[in-house]
Specification:
mainly alpha
């Protein structure tokens, strides 16, 4: 375990997570119609904490492998889109724009996962829950956008 490297990747994840603290869902989100399968509010911080630990650890594993340039470039891209989504959705209340960011996030997480599998099987496997969660989040974003055409 390379603690300085892990903590560096975790700090990048922390920056993405900080947007959730800066742009709380609040009354605006509470007033939106949501699908019946929307996870409870407490689920989001629990899931994201586990995912960010996995995302950082997977990146640390890949950072030590030859041929890591493209996988780590995808990692940087996905964390950028991850950071962007919350301010667009919760801050600006732009559901359609957030959906565009979500599509870019999903594609970049899929590319990261695929490329991580190419250099370290376990690092790729650690990103599968993230890909699943982003898929759920994308479906939720889409559903909220459809249920609230005039929101924002």
């Amino acid at each position: 375990m390379d603690w300085p490297l892990f903590l560096t990747f975790l700090a990048a994840c922390g920056a993405a997570a900080a947007t959730g603290a800066m742009f709380n869902p609040g009354a605006w989100y509470d007033s939106l119609q949501k699908p019946s399968w929307t996870p409870r509010d407490w689920v989001f911080p629990v899931v994201w904490t586990v995912l960010y630990l996995l995302i950082a650890y997977a990146a640390m594993r890949v950072a030590g492998v030859v041929g890591n340039a493209q996988p780590l470039a995808f990692w940087a891209l996905q964390i950028a889109f991850n950071t962007l989504w919350t301010p667009v959705f919760f801050g600006l209340h732009r559901l359609r724009a957030a959906m565009v960011v979500m599509v870019c996030l999903w594609l970049s997480v899929a590319a990261t996962t695929y490329s991580f599998f190419g250099v370290d099987f376990w690092a790729g496997a650690m990103l599968l829950p993230y890909l699943l969660w982003v898929t759920i989040a994308g479906a939720l974003n889409f559903s909220v956008m459809r249920l609230n055409p005039n929101a924002g």
